[in-house]
Amino acid sequence: MNELITGFKQMAPSIPYIINGVWVSLGIALGASILGFIGGILLSLCKIGQVKILSGLAHVYTSIFRGTPLILQLAIAYFGIPQLFQMGDVNPLTCAIITFGLNSAAYMSEIIRSGINAVDKGQFEASKALGVSYWPTMKDIILPQAIKNILPAMMNEFITLTKDSAIVSTISVTDMMRRSQIVAANIFSYFPPMLVSLVMYYIIVMALTYLGNRLERRMRRSD
Q1: Could you give the CA distance from residue 87 to residue 84 in angstroms, rounded to a whole number?
Q2: What are φ and ψ of residue 188, in 5° steps?
């Protein structure tokens, strides 16, 4: 117990340093969410489209990224691909955002596809009867309704990305997890700095969950 108390005392000046890593974690999650949302829309449209080649490629893409560990994808992107193509040093933060975004796109595509399929098919038929072509119908009528219905699921994906961002410490991105490891190595005590990160991640996730629940209730009232 005395060692634990000593560890907390030694760590106290480094608490702001650890907590500031939250902006790195949220930045990765936000950047990856934007990429994942754009990629998810494109993949979902390919999946429900009439072009079999594009539909097949989209399903293969989704299968690969959903069927393999995210940490392995990150390792391949940061260590494997640069070595394979002799690219030299790669910015770890950029690599993390892109990798997380590509991974998120696979999950977002299924969320968006389910949202599109939930829209009344009669609206497609009505648009077709009025002479509106497929892409304007999708862009102006179907997608806005689908996105409105899946906003809670999209918030859950953002929460998942925020938690999973801790693995970027494996490629030396100085997020909260990495900063905790640095502080732990300096004071030779792992529990206190890891506890700070645990509490911060929990607070962030609970705050995002609360916002997600409020958003879902508001969506229900608007219906």
Answers
A1: 8
A2: 60, 40
